[in-house]
Design a protein that fits this description.
The complex is a heterodimer.
Chain A: E1 14-18, H1 24-29, E2 33-36, H2 60-76, E3 79-83, H3 92-99, E4 107-110, H4 120-141, H5 147-172, H6 178-188, H7 193-205, E5 217-223, H8 229-237, E6 240-247, H9 264-273, H10 288-298, E7 303-309, H11 313-328, E8 332-338, H12 345-361
Parallel strand pairs in A: 1-2, 1-3, 3-4, 5-6, 5-7, 7-8
Helix pairs in contact in A: 4-9, 5-7, 6-8, 8-12
Chain B: H1 3-6, H2 8-30, E1 35-38, H3 44-47, E2 53-55, H4 57-66, H5 70-79, H6 88-98, E3 114-118, H7 124-136, E4 140-143, H8 154-175, H9 181-202, H10 214-220, H11 232-250, E5 261-266, H12 274-283, E6 286-291, H13 292-295, H14 314-320, H15 331-345, E7 349-354, H16 359-362, H17 365-376, E8 380-384, H18 395-408
Parallel strand pairs in B: 1-2, 1-3, 3-4, 5-6, 5-7, 7-8
Classes of the chains: A alpha/beta, B alpha/beta.
Amino acid sequence: MPQEKNQTRQRRPVIGCFPLYPPLELFHSMGMTPVVLWGFAEKYDKTIHADRHLQTYCCGIARKMTEYILRDGVKEFDALFMYNACDTLRNLPEIIDCGLVDGSLPLLRMHIPAARLDSEYGQDYLKDEIRQLVKSLEERTGRAFNMETFRDSVSLYSRLRAKISTLCRHVANGGIGYTDVTRLFLEQTMQPVEDQIDALDKVISSVNDNEEQEGVKRVIVSGIIPPPLYVCDAMDRTELRVVVDDTAMIGRSVGYTPESFDTVEDYYHQFYLNHAPCSTLLHNAERRLETLLDLARQHDTSGLIFIGEKYCEYEYFDFPYLDEVLRSKGIKTLQLEFAMGDTQSGSVQTRIEAFAEMLEESR
Amino acid sequence: MSGTIRLEQSATNLKKLVGRYFAEMHKDAAQGKFVAWIAIIVPIELLKGFDIVVAVPENHSAMCAARGVGTMQAEKAEHHGYSMDLCSYARIDLGTWFTKGEGSPSMGMPGPDLLVSNNNNCSLLVKWFDVYRRKLGVPHFTLDVPFCYESQKEKNLDYIVSQFRDLIALIEDKTDQIWDEEKVREAVQLSDEANTHWKRFLDLAAGHPAGMTAFDSFVHMAPYITSYRGTQELVDHCKLLADEAEELASASNFPVPNEKHRLLWDNIAPWHQLRNMSSRLAKLDASVISATYTACMGTVEGQIDPYRYDGVDPLRYLARIQNFSVCPSGLELRYKAMCQLIKRYGITGVIFSSNRSCKVYSVMQMDLKRKIEERYGIPAVMIEVDHADARQYNEEKEFMKVEAMLELM
């Protein structure tokens, strides 16, 4: 693995990872700075480089991520990592390889079983994948895996997840707006974990919760990425208070960290087995409805807003069923769809206002 | 070009087989037989170890599209909230199910007792089948087959075999039947034999003019992707097809007699356009003589010749060929297979059908196109065709691109 290219990152090699739930702690413990390449929603209006390789019916997430890697990947990263995901993403490694004109990037891969992770074969397969990944990292970095260092990295990421959860609670308690938290999260997601913790600490120390509940409509936001900032802002303005963030990039990413484990393989088996349900994790997606209903009960919510990323098949197969059941339980829903090149901000804001009014009337 | 009518005996047999398949499926289910809905490349041969009904939703959707009712069925799913951006096979299937088979040429399929999907052909199949699991409360078994960027690893083969055993145990539990390995061995042997006839048929493309078209192969793949896989009927049909096509070729009866342009098709068949597209091309003396979609049947990743059964362990063999369709293979493997087709059949141009309903097949085509143009110096064109939703195809606009390519040639 070459030495770090970006001097701001403590001279550690940087590994760009996709999709959402890579083994960050492992990379960190091997002396790297892992960053999750997700959610460049606010970064590009056009994807000129990616458009030479991906059709327009690929989702904005894939197109923007490819754009980023093709433009800046060789400068920004020392390697890439991916695990199996949707039908678009699984084709990306070789496409990126074709598209990188100013060099190449080593790619590490892993397969997370979509089969039953509680089965012996599913568990064995995943654990072997982790062992192979460790071996590959040792070869590339020239550094031996160390369990104590790994535990330290786990502790760091556990702190980060706890802080993000704390911030989400402050949003629920009215201490900080959903827009501010989402913006902060998007700004920090490409930073080293230590810097993210510092940045979050600063914000958390200045938050004072607002006990005032009048006019507040408590909602869940669910989707593969957080809503665009103008949508978050519209939600804040209409007093739609996000009491649960169930977006894959925020809420689902911080939902669980194993506490007790003997080996790195054991850690990741627990990590993926008990991960917050996500449409992209085929082995646990079936728990999503039950989880949403539980969250709605716990947080006394009356509405749920689906944030649809156009062409995200995983999410769009789930929406109709989730919608049907949630409505039958008296939870009102709003489905929004976002795509590259959207010019619909006015109509989305109107829909949010109408949804807020509907929740107000039904109180 | 009127390929399927030209192959008259085979066409008659095909019609009989397809009609019987759906009729028997409904009859057996009505008599109480256990029904499994499976994804196309779930190993049907493995299920021959049980006395159960096997139905393939993708096959049913393709049939609806070919018979001109695909769009109507898809719209029904859209009315139930399923996005138009989702796979048209899925929408047709869901639409048919929501309306209890109404509008389907086969009156849909009997309801499932078990769902078996896989994620290597495409992972959205898992989500699609999950809709039924939630609605019907029946078990859904997902075969997890790791995607191949290179040849299948031994570890992956073992992993797939373990899942096969788990699936067998599940069906034994649900049906009170004992899985019969000997029947599976026979079924695998029959599929293997059928593959050799299928290949004999496809290789008629090597002649000048070609003795078959890819459109013929699209039509006659139907028994392969239904529960006829692993049966004597499939062997007989593939043999009949190859024999008949060979006989016609020896009598200089070719689908496109004045063939000037020998084309390769990349993607799922455009089911709603088979006749239109083939006849318009024939008028321009162009023939699509090979297709990645049908050349892969019975092969393994990156190859175009059948992977033969050694007669030993049927489960290991079935696990080895779990990547027999195009989609589970990465760009380099697909490129390798396409290069073999181009060389073997003397391809002079390639049509990449960019299919928004099948991202797994389509994403990477832009790079494949560039690589093939650079290596062979032959023209290639990319057209937009949805395999089953006719609304997503603009015939004149897309055909103009093909005509422009033919002019270049």
